[in-house]
């Protein structure tokens, strides 16, 4: 690898690789990875599905009803975007992957509309008063 590339700050490399994502998206994903590992109760490999679900749960915990809006502001519109961010971090040497890991592990893990709007815990349908 070129020494100039190694000297370039990681966030700059991430921005160049995929400018669709806000810098905060990468930091959030790393926080979600930590959250997911803590929830697992042990340091171990986290699957794409587990990490996507951890991102969802952390976003709901931190941002409540605004979770989907916050993620979309950062460029995250689907679980596939989470995979793109993970593999950008792998490419920059921030994260490591196992042989079987791929970006497709993150495809269609859940629907953002369902997770953050239709099935949001506080949005349970109420019975109408008659």
TrEMBL record:
It comes from the Bacteria. This is Putative repeat protein (TIGR04138 family). It comes from Longimicrobium terrae.
């Amino acid at each position: 690898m070129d020494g100039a590339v190694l000297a370039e700050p990681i966030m700059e490399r991430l921005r160049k690789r995929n400018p669709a994502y806000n810098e905060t998206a990468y930091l959030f994903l790393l926080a979600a990875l930590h959250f997911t590992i803590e929830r697992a109760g042990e340091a171990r490999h986290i699957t794409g599905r587990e990490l996507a679900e951890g991102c969802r749960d952390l976003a709901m915990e931190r941002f409540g009803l605004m979770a989907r809006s916050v993620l979309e502001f950062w460029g995250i519109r689907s679980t596939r975007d989470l995979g793109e961010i993970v593999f950008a971090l792998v490419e920059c040497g921030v994260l490591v992957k196992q042989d079987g890991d791929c970006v497709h592990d993150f495809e269609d893990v859940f629907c953002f509309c369902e997770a953050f709007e239709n099935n949001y815990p506080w949005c349970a349908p109420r019975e109408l008063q008659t």
